[in-house]
Amino acid sequence: MKKFQLGEFEEIVMLITGVLYNEAYGVSIKKAIEEKLSRSVSMGALHTALGRLEAKGYVKSHEGERTEERAGRPKKYFQVTNLGKKAMEYNRDTRNELWNAIPKTAFGLKYNSSL
Question: For residue 30, is it within any domain?
Answer without folding.
Answer: yes
